[in-house]
Design brief:
Low-confidence stretches: 143-147
Radius of gyration: 14 Å
Strand order of the largest sheet: 2-1-3-4-5
Shape: globular
Order of helices and strands: EHEHEHEHEH
Number of strands: 5
Helix content: 25-40%
Distance between the termini: 14 Å
Oligomer: single chain
């Protein structure tokens, strides 16, 4: 089962993303995490995700400015974990700060996209990202390792 983990705390951005991603099948499931701790709980099968179905997401779309654990810390932990490190992580964020961009790439982000404010451009960016990473990109075979 292909899953996308979408980590976003802004309800408006989340609504736009779900509307956009539901228009075409990019994955069997879109898992929503509204903060960094929720994302880590899902990835490690802990907390309320203790009994989740096995299998890692094929893509993580991650905001930077998140409550509890920020996106850069989530990125740091995932890329340091031998089981999770090959999952592509796209920083999909409102931050255009050079320091966030540089730090994201230093920590192993696969791409950095500043969320467009215009709905049509936002939807187009999200569709392009999702299409590439779920339909065109060939992940390494070890990314199929499950927790």
């Amino acid at each position: 089962m292909k899953k996308i983990l979408f980590v976003e705390d802004n309800p408006n951005d989340l609504e736009l993303a779900l509307e956009t991603l539901s228009q075409e099948v990019y994955a069997d499931a879109i898992v929503i995490a509204k903060d960094g701790q929720h994302a880590l709980d899902f990835l490690y099968g802990s907390g309320k995700h203790e009994n989740r179905e096995p299998g890692n997401p094929i893509l993580i779309m991650l905001d930077i400015k998140l409550p509890k654990v920020d996106g850069l810390e989530v990125l740091r932990r995932v890329k340091a974990d031998p089981v999770l490190k090959n999952i592509p992580i796209i920083m999909f964020t409102g931050s255009a700060e050079d320091s966030d961009l540089k730090t994201s790439y230093e920590l192993g982000a696969n791409a950095y996209v500043v969320k467009p404010i215009d709905f049509a451009k936002y939807a187009q960016a999200l569709q392009s990202i999702s299409n590439f990473w779920t339909k065109i990109n060939e992940p390494p075979h070890d990314s199929e390792i499950v927790i």
